[in-house]
Amino acid sequence: MRAHASVSLTSSPPPLSLLEKILYDLPSLEGILLHWHTHGAAALTPGIVSLFSRRKHLLGPATLPGTSIQLLAACVEECLPRGAEEAGNSAWEARPLHTRLVRHRYSHSAMETQALLPPGVLVQKTVTLAVDELLVLCTGVGPWRLSRRDLHAITRALGLSTRRGRHATINPESFQTVEEFGMLPGMVSPFLHPMRATRLAALVDLPWPRCWEAHMREVAISLSLWESLVLPLGCLRPLLRSYAARAYPEVRLIDLQGTEQDTESPGDANASLPMALAC
Of these four, 29, 74, 91, 179, which has the most CB atoms within 10 Å of its CB? Predict the structure, then answer.
Protein backbone atom coordinates (compact mmCIF):
# COMPACT_ATOMS: atom_id res chain seq x y z
CA MET A 1 0.00 0.00 0.00
CA ARG A 2 1.32 3.46 -0.87
CA ALA A 3 2.13 5.93 1.89
CA HIS A 4 -0.10 9.00 2.07
CA ALA A 5 0.00 12.19 4.09
CA SER A 6 -2.68 12.66 6.74
CA VAL A 7 -5.51 15.18 6.42
CA SER A 8 -5.97 17.73 9.17
CA LEU A 9 -9.45 18.83 10.24
CA THR A 10 -8.24 22.40 10.62
CA SER A 11 -6.36 22.84 7.34
CA SER A 12 -7.53 22.81 3.75
CA PRO A 13 -7.98 19.21 2.57
CA PRO A 14 -6.20 17.90 -0.53
CA PRO A 15 -8.08 17.87 -3.86
CA LEU A 16 -10.98 15.42 -3.82
CA SER A 17 -9.50 13.60 -6.80
CA LEU A 18 -6.44 12.77 -4.67
CA LEU A 19 -8.58 11.71 -1.71
CA GLU A 20 -10.53 9.43 -4.05
CA LYS A 21 -7.31 7.68 -5.05
CA ILE A 22 -6.39 7.32 -1.37
CA LEU A 23 -9.79 5.78 -0.60
CA TYR A 24 -9.47 3.19 -3.35
CA ASP A 25 -6.01 2.28 -2.06
CA LEU A 26 -7.55 1.34 1.31
CA PRO A 27 -9.37 -1.91 2.10
CA SER A 28 -13.10 -1.67 1.40
CA LEU A 29 -15.71 -1.27 4.11
CA GLU A 30 -17.52 -4.38 2.81
CA GLY A 31 -15.21 -6.60 4.86
CA ILE A 32 -16.07 -4.73 8.05
CA LEU A 33 -19.80 -4.80 7.33
CA LEU A 34 -19.59 -8.54 6.60
CA HIS A 35 -17.77 -9.10 9.89
CA TRP A 36 -20.47 -7.18 11.73
CA HIS A 37 -23.20 -9.10 9.90
CA THR A 38 -21.66 -12.30 11.27
CA HIS A 39 -20.56 -11.21 14.73
CA GLY A 40 -22.58 -8.07 15.49
CA ALA A 41 -21.64 -4.41 15.18
CA ALA A 42 -20.03 -4.40 18.64
CA ALA A 43 -17.31 -6.75 17.37
CA LEU A 44 -14.02 -5.00 16.69
CA THR A 45 -10.73 -6.49 15.55
CA PRO A 46 -7.26 -4.91 15.36
CA GLY A 47 -7.71 -4.77 11.58
CA ILE A 48 -11.01 -2.86 11.83
CA VAL A 49 -9.55 -0.40 14.36
CA SER A 50 -6.52 0.11 12.10
CA LEU A 51 -8.62 0.73 9.00
CA PHE A 52 -10.83 3.26 10.75
CA SER A 53 -7.72 5.02 12.07
CA ARG A 54 -6.22 5.20 8.58
CA ARG A 55 -9.47 6.50 7.11
CA LYS A 56 -9.58 9.24 9.75
CA HIS A 57 -6.00 10.35 9.15
CA LEU A 58 -6.01 10.02 5.36
CA LEU A 59 -9.54 11.15 4.45
CA GLY A 60 -10.27 13.46 7.37
CA PRO A 61 -13.65 15.27 7.11
CA ALA A 62 -14.45 13.52 3.81
CA THR A 63 -15.60 10.40 5.70
CA LEU A 64 -17.66 9.56 8.75
CA PRO A 65 -15.44 8.52 11.67
CA GLY A 66 -15.30 4.85 12.55
CA THR A 67 -17.31 5.37 15.74
CA SER A 68 -20.16 6.86 13.70
CA ILE A 69 -20.06 4.05 11.15
CA GLN A 70 -20.10 1.44 13.93
CA LEU A 71 -23.04 3.06 15.76
CA LEU A 72 -24.87 3.53 12.47
CA ALA A 73 -24.44 -0.17 11.64
CA ALA A 74 -25.72 -1.19 15.08
CA CYS A 75 -28.83 0.99 14.68
CA VAL A 76 -29.44 -0.20 11.12
CA GLU A 77 -29.38 -3.85 12.17
CA GLU A 78 -32.27 -3.12 14.54
CA CYS A 79 -34.56 -1.82 11.81
CA LEU A 80 -33.61 -3.96 8.78
CA PRO A 81 -35.87 -6.93 7.93
CA ARG A 82 -34.49 -10.02 9.63
CA GLY A 83 -34.95 -12.32 6.67
CA ALA A 84 -36.99 -13.10 3.60
CA GLU A 85 -39.04 -15.56 5.61
CA GLU A 86 -40.71 -12.71 7.50
CA ALA A 87 -44.15 -11.80 6.17
CA GLY A 88 -43.96 -9.42 3.22
CA ASN A 89 -40.17 -9.35 2.95
CA SER A 90 -38.42 -10.33 -0.27
CA ALA A 91 -34.84 -11.55 -0.43
CA TRP A 92 -33.89 -8.16 -1.90
CA GLU A 93 -35.42 -6.27 1.04
CA ALA A 94 -33.71 -8.56 3.54
CA ARG A 95 -30.23 -8.45 1.98
CA PRO A 96 -27.46 -7.98 4.58
CA LEU A 97 -25.58 -4.79 5.30
CA HIS A 98 -22.37 -5.60 3.44
CA THR A 99 -24.30 -5.97 0.17
CA ARG A 100 -25.85 -2.52 0.58
CA LEU A 101 -22.65 -0.51 0.16
CA VAL A 102 -22.33 1.37 -3.15
CA ARG A 103 -19.42 3.41 -4.43
CA HIS A 104 -19.72 6.40 -6.72
CA ARG A 105 -17.87 9.52 -7.76
CA TYR A 106 -17.77 12.40 -5.34
CA SER A 107 -20.19 15.26 -5.80
CA HIS A 108 -20.74 18.73 -4.42
CA SER A 109 -24.51 18.64 -3.94
CA ALA A 110 -27.41 16.29 -3.23
CA MET A 111 -28.66 16.85 -6.78
CA GLU A 112 -25.34 15.64 -8.19
CA THR A 113 -25.26 12.66 -5.84
CA GLN A 114 -28.82 11.72 -6.84
CA ALA A 115 -27.69 11.41 -10.45
CA LEU A 116 -24.96 8.95 -9.41
CA LEU A 117 -27.20 6.56 -7.47
CA PRO A 118 -28.90 3.40 -8.80
CA PRO A 119 -32.51 3.61 -10.01
CA GLY A 120 -35.03 3.62 -7.18
CA VAL A 121 -32.54 5.00 -4.65
CA LEU A 122 -33.00 8.51 -3.22
CA VAL A 123 -30.23 10.59 -1.72
CA GLN A 124 -30.42 11.69 1.90
CA LYS A 125 -29.96 15.45 1.92
CA THR A 126 -29.06 17.40 5.06
CA VAL A 127 -28.58 21.15 5.45
CA THR A 128 -27.67 23.41 8.35
CA LEU A 129 -30.18 26.05 9.39
CA ALA A 130 -29.54 29.00 11.68
CA VAL A 131 -32.83 30.07 13.31
CA ASP A 132 -32.39 33.14 15.45
CA GLU A 133 -29.39 32.02 17.53
CA LEU A 134 -30.12 28.28 17.27
CA LEU A 135 -28.30 25.81 15.04
CA VAL A 136 -30.49 23.14 13.43
CA LEU A 137 -29.88 20.22 11.07
CA CYS A 138 -32.67 19.53 8.57
CA THR A 139 -32.60 16.13 6.86
CA GLY A 140 -34.86 14.59 4.25
CA VAL A 141 -34.98 12.35 1.21
CA GLY A 142 -34.34 13.37 -2.38
CA PRO A 143 -33.00 16.76 -3.56
CA TRP A 144 -35.67 18.65 -1.61
CA ARG A 145 -35.81 22.34 -0.84
CA LEU A 146 -36.94 23.81 2.44
CA SER A 147 -40.40 25.34 2.05
CA ARG A 148 -41.85 28.28 3.93
CA ARG A 149 -44.33 25.89 5.53
CA ASP A 150 -41.44 23.75 6.76
CA LEU A 151 -39.70 26.79 8.20
CA HIS A 152 -42.83 27.93 10.01
CA ALA A 153 -43.29 24.43 11.48
CA ILE A 154 -39.67 24.34 12.64
CA THR A 155 -39.96 27.78 14.20
CA ARG A 156 -43.09 26.76 16.12
CA ALA A 157 -41.50 23.51 17.30
CA LEU A 158 -38.52 25.46 18.62
CA GLY A 159 -40.88 27.73 20.56
CA LEU A 160 -39.85 30.82 18.62
CA SER A 161 -42.07 33.61 17.35
CA THR A 162 -42.74 34.02 13.64
CA ARG A 163 -40.81 37.29 13.72
CA ARG A 164 -37.68 35.59 15.06
CA GLY A 165 -38.11 32.77 12.55
CA ARG A 166 -37.85 35.26 9.67
CA HIS A 167 -34.15 35.56 10.40
CA ALA A 168 -33.46 31.92 9.47
CA THR A 169 -30.50 31.27 7.19
CA ILE A 170 -29.83 28.08 5.24
CA ASN A 171 -26.20 26.93 5.20
CA PRO A 172 -24.95 30.17 6.83
CA GLU A 173 -21.55 31.29 5.59
CA SER A 174 -20.42 32.02 9.14
CA PHE A 175 -20.88 28.36 10.09
CA GLN A 176 -17.94 26.05 9.36
CA THR A 177 -19.09 22.43 9.14
CA VAL A 178 -15.54 21.05 9.42
CA GLU A 179 -14.90 22.87 12.68
CA GLU A 180 -18.35 22.17 14.18
CA PHE A 181 -19.10 18.64 12.93
CA GLY A 182 -15.79 17.39 11.52
CA MET A 183 -17.46 17.04 8.10
CA LEU A 184 -16.93 18.67 4.72
CA PRO A 185 -19.97 20.65 3.48
CA GLY A 186 -20.83 17.81 1.08
CA MET A 187 -20.70 15.29 3.92
CA VAL A 188 -22.98 16.97 6.48
CA SER A 189 -25.44 14.43 7.90
CA PRO A 190 -27.23 13.57 11.17
CA PHE A 191 -24.72 10.80 11.83
CA LEU A 192 -22.36 12.94 13.87
CA HIS A 193 -19.50 11.64 15.95
CA PRO A 194 -21.13 10.16 19.10
CA MET A 195 -20.97 12.52 22.07
CA ARG A 196 -19.06 15.18 20.07
CA ALA A 197 -19.65 18.60 21.62
CA THR A 198 -21.50 20.82 19.13
CA ARG A 199 -23.88 23.78 19.18
CA LEU A 200 -26.63 21.70 17.59
CA ALA A 201 -30.02 22.52 19.14
CA ALA A 202 -32.32 20.29 17.07
CA LEU A 203 -32.49 17.70 14.30
CA VAL A 204 -35.45 18.12 11.96
CA ASP A 205 -36.78 15.07 10.10
CA LEU A 206 -38.55 16.39 7.00
CA PRO A 207 -41.49 14.53 5.43
CA TRP A 208 -41.63 12.60 2.18
CA PRO A 209 -44.61 11.14 0.26
CA ARG A 210 -45.90 7.97 1.93
CA CYS A 211 -46.29 6.32 -1.46
CA TRP A 212 -42.50 6.18 -1.84
CA GLU A 213 -42.30 3.54 0.88
CA ALA A 214 -45.18 1.61 -0.71
CA HIS A 215 -43.20 1.57 -3.96
CA MET A 216 -40.14 0.16 -2.14
CA ARG A 217 -37.94 3.21 -2.62
CA GLU A 218 -34.58 3.14 -0.85
CA VAL A 219 -32.37 5.85 0.60
CA ALA A 220 -28.60 6.31 0.30
CA ILE A 221 -26.79 7.39 3.48
CA SER A 222 -23.32 8.82 2.92
CA LEU A 223 -20.43 7.10 4.68
CA SER A 224 -17.94 9.20 2.74
CA LEU A 225 -18.02 11.40 -0.34
CA TRP A 226 -17.60 8.21 -2.39
CA GLU A 227 -19.51 5.58 -0.38
CA SER A 228 -23.20 5.27 0.47
CA LEU A 229 -25.18 2.71 2.43
CA VAL A 230 -28.49 1.90 0.71
CA LEU A 231 -31.37 1.16 3.08
CA PRO A 232 -35.14 0.70 2.85
CA LEU A 233 -36.77 4.12 3.07
CA GLY A 234 -38.99 2.85 5.89
CA CYS A 235 -35.86 2.35 8.03
CA LEU A 236 -34.79 5.98 7.95
CA ARG A 237 -37.04 7.48 10.63
CA PRO A 238 -36.45 4.76 13.27
CA LEU A 239 -32.75 4.89 12.37
CA LEU A 240 -32.59 8.65 12.98
CA ARG A 241 -34.40 8.31 16.31
CA SER A 242 -32.17 5.46 17.48
CA TYR A 243 -28.92 7.12 16.40
CA ALA A 244 -29.80 10.53 17.83
CA ALA A 245 -30.82 9.02 21.19
CA ARG A 246 -27.43 7.33 21.50
CA ALA A 247 -25.10 9.87 19.90
CA TYR A 248 -26.53 13.19 21.11
CA PRO A 249 -29.43 12.56 23.53
CA GLU A 250 -29.55 16.21 24.62
CA VAL A 251 -30.48 17.38 21.09
CA ARG A 252 -34.17 17.79 20.31
CA LEU A 253 -35.64 15.67 17.48
CA ILE A 254 -38.39 17.42 15.50
CA ASP A 255 -40.40 15.10 13.24
CA LEU A 256 -42.50 16.83 10.57
CA GLN A 257 -43.82 13.57 9.12
CA GLY A 258 -47.44 14.68 9.71
CA THR A 259 -47.10 17.05 6.75
CA GLU A 260 -46.20 14.44 4.12
CA GLN A 261 -48.19 14.15 0.90
CA ASP A 262 -49.89 11.12 -0.63
CA THR A 263 -50.26 12.28 -4.21
CA GLU A 264 -46.69 12.29 -5.52
CA SER A 265 -45.57 9.24 -7.49
CA PRO A 266 -42.09 7.68 -7.16
CA GLY A 267 -41.18 8.99 -10.58
CA ASP A 268 -41.74 12.56 -9.39
CA ALA A 269 -39.03 12.57 -6.73
CA ASN A 270 -37.25 15.49 -8.39
CA ALA A 271 -40.38 17.35 -9.48
CA SER A 272 -42.83 19.73 -7.81
CA LEU A 273 -40.39 20.80 -5.11
CA PRO A 274 -41.70 23.35 -2.61
CA MET A 275 -40.80 27.00 -3.03
CA ALA A 276 -37.29 27.49 -1.75
CA LEU A 277 -35.99 30.17 0.55
CA ALA A 278 -32.92 32.10 -0.52
CA CYS A 279 -29.73 30.36 0.57
Answer: 29
